[in-house]
Amino acid sequence: MNSIKTSLGGANLLLLTVAASLTLSGCARIRDNQGYVRDNELISAIAPGVDNRESVERTLGRPTFQSQWDDSIWYYVSRNTEQLAFLPPTTTGQNVTLVRFDPQGNVAAVESREGMDQVAYFDPSSDETPVFGRDTGLFQEIFGNIGRVSSIPTGGGGPTN
Fold first, then answer.
1. How many domains would you assign to the chain?
2. How far is CA 36 from CA 19, 88, 101, in A?
3. Is the pTM here over 0.70, yes or no?
4. pLDDT in tens, 52-80
């Protein structure tokens, strides 16, 4: 009888240990790297005036994105994040590498910018959306055009007899 109690106590202890380890494993910090995997040796191998678009793409791979207004700038972005359990992830660091090309497609400059100042935060669930222009109220929006629009067309274009 005594050996049965001891084996049940050991089973309870084992079950409690397994349950505690499973519970605590959910509280572990999750570290993640997003975007371009930065390699300083490869970036330093790119020489302005020597390399071109093709050699940069062979060395660093395709860029994360190109400039919207000027396709002569390539961006390689890498971001480190950390998450605790079910909380949303937070950015712990970001690095942006810019490769600028001249009109002939040769590398003009390589720049690296590192730090949290490179991270832009915005709240997509905000109650208000900032807009540029007039600040009008509801009634002004509804009744603001009264008297501004003419019902009589001006200029030619009508039928003539």
1. 1
2. 38, 22, 20
3. no
4. 999 999 999 999 989 888 889 999 998 88
